[in-house]
Amino acid sequence: MSSVWEGNNKFNLWLKIEKLGCEAQAKLGVIPNNVADNLSGAIEFDVECINEIESIVKHDVIAFLTYVAEKAGVDVRYLHYGMTSSDVLDTCLAVQLKESCDILLENLKNLLAALKKKAEDYKDIVCVERSHGMHAEPTTLGIKFARFYAEFKRNYQRLISAQKEISISKISGAVGNFSNVDPFVEEYVAKEIGLIPEIISSQVIPRDRHAMFFSVFGVIASSIGNVAVEIRHLQRTEIGKISEHFSSGQKGSSAMPHKCNPILSENLTGLLRLIRSYVFPALENVALWHERDISHSSMERCIAPDACITMDFALVRLTDLIDKLMINKENIEKNLNSSKGLVFSQRVLLELVNNGLAREEAYKIVQSNAMKVKQYNSDFLAELKQDKPLLKVINSKKLESLFDLKYYTKHIDRVYNKVFN
Predict the structure, then answer these.
(1) HEC states along 346-406?
(2) CB 67 within 8 A of CB 59
(3) pLDDT, tens digit, for every residue of 345-356?
(4) How far is CA 226 from the centre of its chain?
């Protein structure tokens, strides 16, 4: 990913765009054929030298053109003919973002494979899940990974859309009206470089495209955080259902030798905050002065490579984390049983309703017994069996049958078919 954004690659892309522009202009008979021919040979770019020229001329594209003219012997009258700097800069940025998406889409494929494997491996491992951090009802650990899989499958499609949104070329001149460059040039460059010509532009590609692109990054980052935060919660000492892989020789704390901290998921939580922070400035860039200003430029030079490189790192790290995740089945069962049967409360409630009780009355009966379990650390089923009004509606044998974990997994195949088919 870093190589997509390093200086030498950028200058080679600029050169390719300039060369294709010259080829198109030559086909139109606007400039001599030899201009494009002189750009066909490889040019060794000295980034420092170009930077030195820029320090004098105070313009990056002019510095680049000066360097190319010197190295290639191109007649500077025709180099960059009819074009403006943004024709090169925006088209290059589009290529870099498109290439970055190719890498990120491959990363997402790998992450989806890792999540799918975990969903399949733990499809039938029953555990208790939570709402508001409190025990809710039983489900399976596999369902959790299947949910994450579905989320990142949506993210994969979002990134495909974002890549399409940003894969746009712009070779339309100073204010985008093609006054000094024929529309054929833009079409030719776009086709040869694998982009789509902008429908209509100002001096720059409209920044709503970039805003959408980085907003998708923000959504993907939030999804990474969704997984990372869940892992951090489930690794807490009191829960310990899953944990990050702790390698041989690894140390958890400089002060406390017993510590095995969730450092990878914590690291991801921090990185996603960084990526999401780039969404707002990208949105701000949509409103430029008239046909353009450069208030967007300095920020994009920072966030474009940084967001892509950080996202690449985060997705690879998350995939590795999921691959090596440790599952503690003993603690899963311990957590499930720790609430002394309270996780079956809704099923008891519904059975009372089905047997003729008003919902409010049924709720009151179930809740009062649940509060006894919490107050006296007793057993929920045992408390229910001592409730005489309840036993008039449901006998003990029927009550026992309601405390069946298979009830909560009866539709799991249907859920998996929706997610994975």
Answers:
(1) HHHHHHHHHCCCCHHHHHHHHHHHHHHHHHHCCCHHHHHHCCHHHHCCCCHHHHHHHCCHH
(2) no
(3) 999 999 999 999
(4) 11
The DSSP symbol for 174 reads T
Could you tell me the pTM of the whole model?
0.93
pLDDT 10s digits, 310-329: 999 999 999 999 999 999 99
Q: Which residue has 């899940």 as its token pair? A: 129
Q: Count Cβ atoms below 10 Å from residue 257 Cβ, excluding itself.
A: 8
Is residue 253 flagged as an active site residue? Answer: yes
pLDDT tens digit sequence for 136-178: 999 999 999 999 999 999 999 999 999 999 999 999 999 999 9
pLDDT by residue (tens digit) across 175-202? 999 999 999 999 999 999 999 999 999 9
Task: Note the pLDDT of residue 221.
Answer: 97
In the chain, the amino acid numbered 143 is I
Catalytic residue from among 55, 131, 132, 248: 132
Tell me which DSSP letter residue 195 carries.
-
Residue 326 token pair: 């440790």
Q: Which residues of 309-327 are buried (b: 16+ CB within 10 A; e: fewer)?
A: bbbbbbbebbbbbbeebeb
Look up residue 207 and give its two tokens. Answer: 């920044």
Q: How many CB atoms lie within 10 A of CB 383?
A: 20
pLDDT of res. 254: 78
| Residue of 40, 253, 277, 295 marked active site | 253
Query: Which tens digits make up the pLDDT trace of 74-125?
Result: 777 888 999 999 999 999 999 999 999 999 999 999 999 999 999 999 999 9
Q: State the DSSP string of 213-274.
A: HHHHHHHHHHHHHHHHHHHHHHTSTTT-SEE----TT--S-SS-TT----HHHHHHHHHHHH
List the one residue out of 403, 398, 393 whose CA is nearest residue 357.
Answer: 393
Our answer to whether residue 247 is catalytic in this structure is: no
Classify strands 126-131 and 134-140 as parallel, antiparallel or unpaired. antiparallel
Q: Is pLDDT at 72 greater than 90 in this prediction?
A: no
Give buried/exposed letters for 87-105 (b at 16+ CB in 10 A, else e). bbbbbbbbbbbbbbbebbe
**Token pair in block for residue 63:** 């510095």
| Full 3-state SS string of 301-351 | HHHHHHHHHHHHHHHHHHHHHHHCCEECHHHHHHHHHCCCCHHHHHHHHHH
